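From the shared-data thread, chain only:
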Amino acid sequence: MRAVRSWTDRTATHARVAFAAIALATATPALADPAPTGAWDCDTDAGRARLEFRSTRTLVFDGVDRAYRILGDAIQVIEDGLPANYTFRLAGDALDITTPDGDALRCRKAAVSDATPERRPEDSGKRGAERQFNHLLQGALCAWAGSSSSTGSTSRTTTARFDGRGRFTVTGDASFGGQNGLGYGGGEEGGGTYEVTSPQVGAAIRIRWSTGEDDAAVVSHVVSGQIAEIRYGKTLFAAGLCNR
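Structure, as tokens:
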């Protein structure tokens, strides 16, 4: 299973407005079933595999970390750059999952003693191998949104700057124009730490905001070994959008 997730919405007064002012243009549908949590042992065609929901944004399936989100009765992940929905039914200690191809996964809740403790971006030792990918995400990536009408126009650019060593900052710039003139605004809107889990398209980028909250993005495009685009929910952040 591979996964994607949407990063949660932020406001300008809540340090994480950064990516989110654009990202959640639509609300997440109500859940048909409670969202699964914790660790599960699943029977697949290839044998037994462990599925763990590490947070509301990150899961691990058969040892591979992925970002994800819950949409109604589906776990949405990214496969080959496109969203894929794995429908699920949760009933107590039983979790039934149906893949996009119609295959069934039968999962049972793992014993508490078998569950792997949740890992944090600042943990040392265990994450050394993964941190080697942070240098592949470096520089500025931007998201843009705008609208126009008979009364005027508005636009907003959100810029995420990654230092290549696991830290990032976010700034926002907005402008509007109309019959009453032009206006501009902007400034720093948040930041924190990040961790690239893999240089492959669809891989999760773990985020921890400076407020202590965990989040995730997804690798969307890689050019010459460098991450050139990422997705935060439905929002694309790309280097090329910084020049609009």
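Confidence is low (pLDDT under 50) at residues 2-32, 115-126.
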